[in-house]
């Protein structure tokens, strides 16, 4: 079972920064999960929130802020004592991570314009070095449709949102949009789900798994990947 650092090793470093991604690998992760969205000048940036306040103290929407302004901000929110990081471009992260690292790019979008991140990220991923170590996921069906149309060879999976109707996601969206993978939340998955999704040819990556006992149970069920804020703790508990 793969261990992927959720926004990097985000328990120990500011989330979605180059330092958090490197630390995840140093702690023994097989790769990382990261959040990708469009900024105001059209670049794909790696940043979880739609707005800047929580992570940087600046105000405004990422979608309205050009890259040259984002590049000057510090990502301050993080564990006490950890040095501040900065917001990376997706292109920089792809360049920085070794070819052996598995990458789960989660596409974030709050509106139709934002779903263009699928094409922009798809272009970077298709030209990058991680094509056989890659999955793109999203809660947003339109992002997955756009990725499938523009870059059909890139593996894609649906993130299951615990706050939206399960039947709609599992019986309608999943068969249509999640050709390669399904990414459920840890509290909403049973062993029979894993078996069914595997029969359909999909890999299963579960988030966010910080408890080693839960990770052991998921591994026993045959889950393909755990997405965790604490890759070091999971690696220590699970071994190689
Ligand atoms: O990709 C798994 C997880 O990251 C989804 O939720 O809000 O942490 O991006 P969120
Ligand atoms: Mg995410």
């Amino acid at each position: 079972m793969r261990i992927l650092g959720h926004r990097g090793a985000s328990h120990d470093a500011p989330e979605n920064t180059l330092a958090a991604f490197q630390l995840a690998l140093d702690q023994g992760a097989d790769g990382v999960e990261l959040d990708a969205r469009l900024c105001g000048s059209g670049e794909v940036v790696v940043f979880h929130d739609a707005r800047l306040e929580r992570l940087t103290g600046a105000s405004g929407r990422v979608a309205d802020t050009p890259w040259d302004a984002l590049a000057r901000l510090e990502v301050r929110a993080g564990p006490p004592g950890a040095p501040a990081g900065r917001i990376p471009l997706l292109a920089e992260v792809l360049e920085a991570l070794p070819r052996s690292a598995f990458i789960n790019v989660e596409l974030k979008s709050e509106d139709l314009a934002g779903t263009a991140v699928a094409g922009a990220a798809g272009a970077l991923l298709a030209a990058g070095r991680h094509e056989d170590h890659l999955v793109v996921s999203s809660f947003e069906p339109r992002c997955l449709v756009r990725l499938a149309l523009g870059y059909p060879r890139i593996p894609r999976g649906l993130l299951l949102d615990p706050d939206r109707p399960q039947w709609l996601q599992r019986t309608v969206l999943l068969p249509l949009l999640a050709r390669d993978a399904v990414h459920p939340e840890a509290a909403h998955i049973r062993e029979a789900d894993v078996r069914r999704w595997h029969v359909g040819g999909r890999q299963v990556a579960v988030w966010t798994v910080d408890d080693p006992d839960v990770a052991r149970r998921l591994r026993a069920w045959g889950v393909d990947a755990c997405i965790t804020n604490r890759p070091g703790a999971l690696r220590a508990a699970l071994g190689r």
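The chain has one domain: 2-238. The chain has ten helices and eleven strands.
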